[in-house]
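Predict the holo structure. Ligand: cytidine-5'-monophosphate.
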Amino acid sequence: MARMNFRNRTVVLCVGGGIAAYKACEVARLVVKGGGTVRVAMTPAATRFVGPLTFQAISGAPVLVDLLDPATDLAYGHLGLARSADLAIVAPATADLIARIRAGMGDDGVTTTLLAMTCPVLVAPAMNTRMWANAAVQENVAALRARGMHVVGPEAGELADGDVGEGRLADPAQIALAAARLLGRQDLSGRRVVVTAGPTREPIDPVRFISNPSTGKMGYAVAARAARRGADVTLVSGPTALADPAGARVVRVETAEEMARAVDAAAAAGMDLFVGAAAVSDYRPREVAPQKRKKTPGEETLVLARTPDILAGLGARLAGRPDAPVLVGFAAETEEVIANAREKLKAKRCDLVVANKVGAPGAGFASDTNRVALVSSDELAEIEGTKEQVAEAILDWILPVLETRRPRDG
Ligand code: C5P
């Protein structure tokens, strides 16, 4: 059976009240074993078959049973489970629960959570074979499918009550496998990725600095998408207003020198891919005044010194080695975008430069969308979309290069 990888993913397991509820424990365990996070909601009837404590022990978090229970509301906030989910699994989905989901009811923690879900939902029905054959149940399941929900099982076999036929909950391993497939690609699993993002701040004195308007959105999108695809991600970030991307280790820094040191530390632990999306300040004031600089009547001269070029430094040290990490740089230009990107590709010895025209509509600093060109030594591809879509396109480009550089173990 294919390896089931749930790294950096949150699965909300909704447990219905049937005899197969105990098998849902195994589904939860398989997600945890695959490196994922499981959060559990149970119908009140489900708690008659398996105690919430069992699921709490497997998932390591409180179980949502009573919508109006202040303790679980504290843990998740209203509808917090729905917000956190990358995927919902309903197992076992009893005839009653299927009917309530179809009707759009919100009469307990499970149905309310499912009502608020925007992620894929996988339904694993389980019930007596005569109930499963009932036209109402079949119509309800068809309606759920028509709404885009996914269904796994039920299987045929001997049922708990002695009847033989279709109705048995799909094997927990099959449910977990279907879940892993729905969660999509994990093609960067086992890869160590270091991303820089945001601006740097180079102090002039204790209250002033040199910086730029980078928001960090592009680098954060690359870090988040790489983590989603299973990579082990370290994001070295200058000052930004963005929340830490899920699944990434975040190191916050201020200056270019601090960023360079943090990248070196992360690279020392092993690195398959470096993405330099930070807008690193090229210069810093040569002297930092220990006290606030006083205004003078005339002109002021600020002497600047160069900062370390992090990307070029990595290129000079590592490029050309058979086990070199894939190096990706960004180029924000106001003119001659492609020609400048090609220059940068050579000068910094990287594998790919993502070129951006600053000032073009729908691109660049602070924008949610981007129009970029992926420039390598023998290719040029234009990409347009949200920063998330651009991040995915960059990772798609990198994937085959990673394979040639350092094939994955096993
Ligand atoms: O030379 P330029 O600043 O245009 O190059 C941009 C690329 O180089 C980006 O990938 C940026 O993160 C990286 N860079 C760096 N360290 C610097 C300057 C730029 O890593 N000091």
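Residues 196, 256, 276, 278, 280, 282, 307-311, 329-331, 344 surround cytidine-5'-monophosphate (CB under 6 Å). The chain has a mean pLDDT of 92.
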